[in-house]
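#lab-general

N.A. 3:47 PM
ok so I finally got the sequence cleaned up, no stray characters, all 82 residues accounted for. can someone with queue access submit it? mine expired

B.Y. 3:52 PM
send it over

N.A. 3:53 PM
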Amino acid sequence: MVDNFSRKVWSFFIKHKDDVFDVFLDWKTMIEKKTEKRIKTLRTDNCLEFVEKKFTKYCSKNGIVRYRTYVGRPQQNGVARE
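B.Y. 4:20 PM
back already:
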């Protein structure tokens, strides 16, 4: 994960793609506790682990605006692809 403002990068080893949502929740909790700010936007590609209903529903319920890149346009991932 990359913070576009600070350019800080977090890397996680994930054994199964099904674990992405739980890793995101842990990361979100850690960041919000450290910074005392809440996550407002999230940009992801369209991999299946990011378009699952539970991921989309969670973001919607928690006021996180989702931006998903278009298929075949990795340059939209910005800093994460540099």
